[in-house]
Amino acid sequence: MSDRLAVRAATEDEFGALLDAAAIAFHGDRSDASRLRLRDRFELDRSRIALDDGQVVGTSSAWGWRLTVPGGELPCAAITLVTVLPTHRRRGILRRMMKALVADARERGEPLAALWASEGRIYGRFGFGPASWTRRSRIDLAGGVPLRSPVADPSLRLVDLAGAAPLTAAIFDRARRQRAGIMSRPPAWWTTRILSDAQDERPADGAPKRLVACGEDGYALYRVHEDVAGGPVGGIGQTTVEVQELIAATPEAGRALLAFLTSIDLATRVELHERPLDDELELAPADPRAMRTIQQGDALWLRILDLPAAVAGRSWAADADLVLQVDAPGDPGLDGRWALRIADGAGVAERSERPADLAIADRDLASAYLGGVRVAALAAAGVVVEHEPGAVATLDLALRTARAPWTVDVF
Ligand SMILES: CC(=O)SCCNC(=O)CCNC(=O)[C@H](O)C(C)(C)COP(=O)(O)OP(=O)(O)OC[C@H]1O[C@@H](n2cnc3c(N)ncnc32)[C@H](O)[C@@H]1OP(=O)(O)O
């Protein structure tokens, strides 16, 4: 490693060079307008860039958001834009930037860090494990899609994208508290990203604008487009209602939005992006096969930075008194034995000298924390070791949540 290498926050003047470097590593650049919008929401003081003799060779940053955890929410460093130039890869630059990002998050009192991983093999070594999953669903509209329990929302209106933020943000804020894994959204995230309909962010020139159908308790952000790949000639093309997000604070609002989206004239199918694995909307149509999963993958990768705060910050489903051997080789703050005491829904974690009831790696504990992965499954996979019979089942009961974790924002 070169002695000339420095890792620090980028200055205002270096923002352009940071994006230039990231564009090389990600094989794709942003327009000038998109760069400006990103700058509006970027927390420059949280960036950590690597400079080799003054040249930006590595980039990374974080947003200081709040993550819904079971029964509450916690501050979370949302790590983003991690890149290293191809000339400087595999020299430990990511490792140095990650160390700096994590130190900064801990200084800010954030007990959790999270990211979306570009590849599955990178982040486990840094204590991150997949903790929520999303899927994309498709509904073919031929013959209609009657719901078993139909509901209409007379408050539903198409609202202007530019003015939608106060309405959608209020609904989102109610909905996000109902499921672990969802991040809070600062105002600039709404205006410069979610509700931005700048031409340079549309999929193709002339593509129709995104629309917002908003009711009192739910909204859908969608676009209707004709897919000419198959050729619209003779009626063999598709007209797709592409739903970027459907957010409902009540089950009725969700069903009413589904009824609305599946009854838009001239559309032949609906595609719903980033839905939870246990999407209740799948059960709403009369035909149980109406909604099909066409893509599925991991979403949020989580890392626990402060175990006592993470344990105290979520609610627990059953009592437990266990000692966990947490294997976190790169993190002395987490590595070692912890007594986990849970009573009446509240948990406490403290360092312990007692023999361990089970051994679990940092990345696996993070995967299980939001309730999306069973510890018994990790044990069956051979990565959790039970020393005291029943310890795995006890931990699973305590971690259990009613709904699968879900993450709406790709960052
Ligand atoms: C949150 C996000 O932004 S996800 C986006 C991540 N970025 C990208 O995918 C863009 C293209 N890739 C890159 O820019 C770089 O290859 C990075 C950022 C993924 C890795 O940066 P590097 O500086 O090469 O990583 P670094 O040298 O610090 O490697 C640390 C360890 O991770 C391993 N590693 C790094 N990248 C990979 C990978 N893609 N696959 C498997 N292992 C990897 C290294 O082998 C090393 O392992 P070790 O500790 O056992 O020796």
Per-chain topology:
Blueprint: E1 5-8, H1 15-26, H2 32-41, E2 49-52, E3 55-69, E4 72-84, H3 93-107, E5 112-115, E6 129-130, E7 133-140, E8 157-159, H4 165-176, H5 187-194, E9 211-214, E10 218-227, E11 238-248, H6 251-261, E12 269-276, E13 291-298, E14 301-304, H7 307-313, E15 320-327, E16 336-343, E17 346-351, E18 358-361, H8 362-369, H9 375-380, E19 385-386, H10 391-399
Acetyl coenzyme *A binds at residues 25-26, 79-84, 89-95, 115-119, 121-122, 125.
Please characterize this protein's 3D structure:
The protein is of the alpha+beta class and 411 residues long. It has helices at residues 15-26, 32-41, 93-107, 165-176, 187-194, 251-261, 307-313, 362-369, 375-380, 391-399; strands spanning 5-8, 49-52, 55-69, 72-84, 112-115, 129-130, 133-140, 157-159, 211-214, 218-227, 238-248, 269-276, 291-298, 301-304, 320-327, 336-343, 346-351, 358-361, 385-386. Strand 9 (211-214) and strand 10 (218-227) form a beta hairpin. It binds acetyl coenzyme *A. Acetyl coenzyme *A (ACO) binds next to helix 1, strand 4 and helix 3.
